[in-house]
Design the sequence.
């Protein structure tokens, strides 16, 4: 027996939770369906699902609002369609795109796919952001991904750091955090954004 395994999908209407007591056997899975927003019963649907699954599998009571003992949990995996739906429906908060200098048009340009190559009336959806902030910074990969020798430079700190997918990244120009912060603050404090 391993630890309790929990998978959650938080949607706009319902939050689906699947828990396994640690056997890994599908027949031991327990399924919960909760309203994603139910303020009269709980503040947060995923947390409520975790609480209920722990009560089911441990036999202990976990009152709402009390920190949960997670020592019996092997993993929690969570996905959500809320952000995807907001993108598809073009709803959500106003936002600014923060990107590396020289890349402000990359989302607008897209991948240049043309399913109907001779169509002169191409319609593209509007971008989701209202303004772009370009950050003067640069990084590069240190090693060649397709190197037949498979030579890898170890991150050593300083200008050589480990990337999110374990590649070694060389920092060519570090961003100036104070400059970025003041630019974003200036955008946020404009009249059009204050009223949000």
Sequence:
């Amino acid at each position: 027996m391993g630890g309790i395994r929990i998978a959650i999908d938080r949607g706009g209407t319902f939050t689906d939770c699947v828990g396994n007591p640690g056997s890994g056997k599908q027949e031991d899975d327990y399924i919960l369906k909760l309203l994603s927003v139910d303020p009269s019963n709980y503040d947060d649907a995923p947390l409520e699902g975790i609480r209920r699954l722990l009560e089911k599998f441990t036999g202990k009571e976990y009152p709402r609002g009390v920190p949960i003992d997670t020592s019996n949990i092997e993993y929690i995996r969570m996905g959500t369609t809320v952000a995807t739906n907001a993108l598809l429906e073009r709803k959500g908060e106003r936002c600014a795109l923060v990107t590396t200098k020289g890349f402000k048009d990359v989302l607008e340009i897209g991948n240049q796919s043309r399913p109907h190559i001779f169509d002169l009336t191409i319609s593209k959806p509007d971008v989701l952001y209202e303004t772009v902030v370009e950050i003067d910074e640069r990084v590069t990969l240190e090693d060649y991904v397709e190197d037949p020798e498979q030579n890898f430079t170890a991150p050593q700190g300083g200008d050589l750091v480990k990337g999110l997918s374990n590649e070694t990244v060389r920092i060519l120009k570090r961003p100036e955090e104070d400059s970025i912060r003041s630019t974003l603050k200036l955008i946020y404090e404009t009249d059009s954004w204050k009223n949000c």
Q: What stands out?
A: Residues 141 and 169 are 5 Å apart (CA to CA). The beta strands are 4-10, 14-20, 30-35, 73-80, 96-100, 131-135, 138-141, 160-162, 168-173. The radius of gyration is 24 Å. Helices lie at 45-58, 82-89, 106-109, 177-188, 191-194.
